[in-house]
Amino acid sequence: MCRAQVINFPRRGSSSYPAEIMHRLQHLANRSLIAGVFDQSPALVRTKARETSCLVQSIRLKTQGPVEEYGLKRFSTAGATVVLRENGKMREKTLTMDTINPQVKAVEYAVRGAIVTKAGDIERGLQQGQKHPFTEVIKANIGDSHAMGQKPITFLRQVVALCSFPDLLNSPSFPEDAKQRARRILQGCGGQSLGSYSASQGVDCIRQDIAVYIEQRDKGVPADWDNIYLTTGASDGIVSILKMLVSGQGRSRSGVMIPIPQYPLYSAAISEMEAVQINYYLDEDNCWALDINELHRAYQAAKEHCHPRVICIINPGNPTGQVQSKKCIEEVLHFAYEENLFVMSDEVYQDNVYSPDCQFHSFKKVLYEMGPEYFNTVELASFHSTSKGYSGECGFRGGYMEVLNLDLEVKAQLVKLLSVRLCPPVSGQAAMDVIVNPPLPHEPSYLQFHKEKSAVLGALAEKAQMTEQILNTVPGIKCNPVQGAMYAFPRIFIPLRAVEEAKSLGMSPDMMYCLRLLEETGICLVPGSGFGQREGTYHFRMTILPTTEKLKVLLEKLRDFHIKFLKEYASLEEPKR
């Protein structure tokens, strides 16, 4: 009697199999037989041949009736799926947790980590009718403006729509200034189509517009469009520059100085590239300012085990929301000049400055004002994006970087590296062009554009102030002013008993805090440990992007939860402020 070890056969809505499937099954069976020929006796091979023939004939007979009667399941495009080997063991997978690149396992990205996964599970459960002590999950974990309810900027969407479907250029529904920009962008595209590849550095006319924007932003500091590279969001540019900088082995391995707290892209990229992460701590007691003495401390300590080659700055800050002063930027650039460091300036929040006492200063402008000795020698890469600012167009994945003072041969290597990914999304490049080339006062779209932009930035400024004020009324929470960007990063007091419980569960105390917050209130925040923090301190990051009404609800729920948390774990402990 023949016994088959073949599972999962085709199901096409009919009870019989097409002839080509049977042919492929016969081929599969023969291949399985041949695989064992060379280590089997002739008699055993003949026996297996009879079994294989019997197997195929059995399937032909059985599939004359309804498929379901014989336990046959999903269709596989391979015709049939052989699950078991002759010895009954599963085929071993090539890629396992033991064989995967260990640098991939080392990568962590808290913004989309375990908390967010849990929030997604809860959200799906709510949709399926599961009961929770809340009716919705409020996600304040990521800077995704449109997901939080922000409306698109009309002019930007008009230009991208015209570029995507040029027939609309004949429509009277679109303003002439939007059409002019769309025509110019399309003329720079191959075949005058947004669907063509661009040059690896980006569409030339968009790079030229970016250079004009930078000159205007920096009050006349010259910008060469040949130093401009369009990127897939700012992240793509940051990773590309880091790839260029990482080299060496042992004590000569490249060290990358990053602020703590930091945006997890940096630590993730450093882990993936096996570079050395050099932490320098921002001064929480001084509104997260950058302390030059701390830079020197971190640099000197790192020299003992690596070669520090680059310093990264995020201004305005993520997750900390500070705006660095001009004096502070001058000190950083002088430090980089003295220690021969490459400077990476993450400036994606340059439009997000809310405090009247603060102003955005680009690293390039400050470098220029320090004189030719600095401006012509310090290697500087600055990054911008469509994802933040007032547009919040995260999904377009548009961005650019300006790279100064690269060695000419190294510059050619950068272009080669960028060419491997062909080009950034051309639709994202078009969106980036609108941000650097918005309507001018004499153009028909200016009034609506200005009104929408001002409304977005005005609402963010109000929510930044409201968040700081409400959090600072809660016992055991201290929040620095949210001067810019899109986040608050308050320090939270966690009682010793809660710290010990978290450690017994194998997690950081602020992770346990945020999990409890999610499970009891539906609020999704990111624990400070995902961004880095001084030992013995605890924080969380929250966006200020929800609507004003929803943000008030979030802050009230958070206040009530925190007081309850303190009462549960610290009935006799005095909360620290």
TrEMBL record:
Gene3D superfamilies to which the protein is assigned, alphabetical: 1.10.287.1970, Aspartate Aminotransferase, domain 1, Type I PLP-dependent aspartate aminotransferase-like (Major domain)
Q: Which cofactor does it need?
A: pyridoxal 5'-phosphate
Query: What keywords are assigned to this protein?
Result: Aminotransferase, Pyridoxal phosphate, Transferase
**What CDD domains would the database entry show?**
AAT_like
Q: What is its EC number?
A: 2.6.1.2
Domain Aminotransferase class I/classII large intervals: 176-558
This entry carries the following GO cellular component terms, namely:
cytoplasm
A single Pfam family it belongs to is Aminotran_1_2
The protein's annotated catalytic reaction(s) are: L-alanine + 2-oxoglutarate = pyruvate + L-glutamate
Database matches in InterPro entries: ALAT1/2-like (IPR045088), Aminotransferase_I/II_large (IPR004839), PyrdxlP-dep_Trfase (IPR015424), PyrdxlP-dep_Trfase_major (IPR015421), PyrdxlP-dep_Trfase_small (IPR015422)
Q: Which family does the record assign?
A: Belongs to the class-I pyridoxal-phosphate-dependent aminotransferase family. Alanine aminotransferase subfamily.
Q: How does it assemble?
A: Homodimer.
Q: What is the designated name of this protein?
A: alanine transaminase
- Source species of the chain: Coregonus suidteri
